[in-house]
Description:
The chain is α+β, with helices and mostly antiparallel strands and 114 residues long.
Amino acid sequence: MPEETVFRKIINKEIPSDILYQDDYVTAFRDIAPQAPTHILIIPNKLIATVNDIEIEDEQLIGKMYTVAKNIAKQQGIAKSGYRLIMNCNQDGGQEVYHIHLHLLGGKQLGNLL
Ligand code: AMP
């Protein structure tokens, strides 16, 4: 079994965080160290450590994360101006918290990554 991370405490509201959306499957909250004017993390409530650990049975859950992300982008007023969704995987991908999370970044011109 993968080890729980600080994100479990956020899901369970055991530590303070700025939660924008939560249902039985997904939680979205503001990143504590924002890299853009809007920087929100969308996570599954179920612990999946890395993208490598996503199973076929998780496909609907992963899809839901994107639906929540685009709804939040609209609520935050950045849907039209645009935004970036990023999921880092393992060391070379820059992953620090081993509970998958979709970064929703926007509110400024983000520049090219590739
Ligand atoms: P990553 O490098 O893709 O694993 O991203 C982890 C993200 O989690 C970073 O952007 C951190 O700023 C963010 N983070 C870590 N701890 C917290 C926390 N307690 N509340 C909100 N965001 C956090």
